[in-house]
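LOG
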Amino acid sequence: MNPLSKILFLSSALFFLSCSPQKTTAEPKVVYKTDNLSVIQLSDDIYQHISYLNTESFGRVPCNGMIVKDGNETVILDTPTDDKSSEELISWIKSSLHAKVNAVVATHFHNDCLGGLKEFDKNNIPSYASNKTIELAKEAKANVAGHGFNDTLTLNAGKHKILIKYFGEGHTKDNVVAYVPDQKAMFGGCLIKEIDATKGYLGDANVQAWSGTVEKVKAQYPDVKTVIPGHGDVGGKELLDYTIKLFRSN
């Protein structure tokens, strides 16, 4: 290749790179980890938090939640499983993300969603749950969120809207799903299963309704790219399909 050709080639390559869309999201990576709590960054503004629940039937179970961040604001979906882990999470958000927590939402009434709620109360962080969740939590003598809503709730973390919606019964009578439209990211909670998961705990479930409820979720958010289940590995829309198939026979 002669010198003029080399110059033309390099100029063309630089032009192509400058005009190509640049990747703005981070690769998933662990950004915090202790024995009680892990935080995984899934994209620039979406994080998965993982804490642990000791159970008789399933042993020490990792439990997921989601953090949505923009600027110095965050919203958390599901508390960690206890106050100690919640304290760690709130402290990490303040010190590492340099952000405040606008709100925390419990997606159903089990302890893997609201076990650490008292720590949020202690930090004067507003807590939300559906009125169904509040009613069931009171019956179970569990922690109770400070603010209720009926079927839908919209919260904001900076420019990100978080849509929380009840689609029907499944894992529990009250399970809700959170969706961040501009990130195409969903926190499905325990309504959604990871790939190859078993049916899990069914003590409060409506297995007959479960598939139909998830079909409604899939129809409402056809563009979803990131799905965080209540337990296990993050995926995409295939988690919705897997959950529908898992419970369809019932």
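LOG (cont.) second protein
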Amino acid sequence: MRYLDVPALGPPARASATSQQSQSPPQVSRIGLGTWQFGSKEWGYGEEYADHTAAVIVRRALDLGVTLFDTAEIYGFGRSERILAAALGADRTRVVVASKLFPILPVPAMVRRRAQASARRLQLDRIPLYQVHQPNPVVPDSVTMRGMGELLRDGRIGAVGVSNYSLARWRRADAALGQPVVSNQVEFSLARPGPLRDLVPFAQREDRVVIAYSPLAQGLLGGRYGPGNRPGGVRAANPLFSEENLRRAAPLLNRLREVAAAHDAKPAQVALAWLISLPQVVVIPGASSVEQLELNVAAAELVLADDEVASLTAAAQAFTPVSAARTAVDAARQRLSRGRR
């Protein structure tokens, strides 16, 4: 496993020297575990997964050196946090548990109350990384960050992060907090390479972290799907899996398969290896099984050549998916055409 040092996630500055030695900052594994699917019905994994498989995945992740576990209060309406806490057991204080505030009425009193509720579900006195799940379009960060700052000063959280923030709003959150907002969790993959333009250079320059969610584009980059083999379930609503976008993705997927064959690896592993080849980037793929987790974690040992990274980057930037609106129009046209036959 490869790791990233994030000193802000260490023990509180006011802790004694002896205490700080016993609470050295945990290193953040470059490949973490996302837990949206824990207890969330929209993934369709069922109760056996929630009651048993999820915990087995967490324990195996610990065995493999994973130290970053990402959850949120909105995932399963708190159930993901509870499942994660039970699965981690006593190890929950020795890893980086990251949770997220869903920003409905994110005024300071509500921020404190919601953080306390997450901490109870996670069975933690202190949440190592507490993130604003998405920017509130009405409430400015000058309000939300007052609550986050109070949590920091009280030692209730280790560091503040954000999610789905543009670079401009990330900077505004910094100013509102009065100190660095450590991380920004964004959709980032070879199919969604936008953060390469600004977020990754900023993180490298300012010693921050970009946390890539959906690093496999909900399975698109596994290479299983194509125009004649589209997924069902929650993925069916993702415009990336429209027939048109699956056709457009073919050159990128072909390049992934070529690099994977050269390394005797899976396309999904190459997609993860590409992300963690970038400075200050960590990834949080989910896992439907222990086998998938093991494949994801093994990607940390896959070292891509510079020309492979460059060719994958070029293929990613050449992929231009059509919008959700265009996908909906095309689907309507196809239904209408079939109805006329």
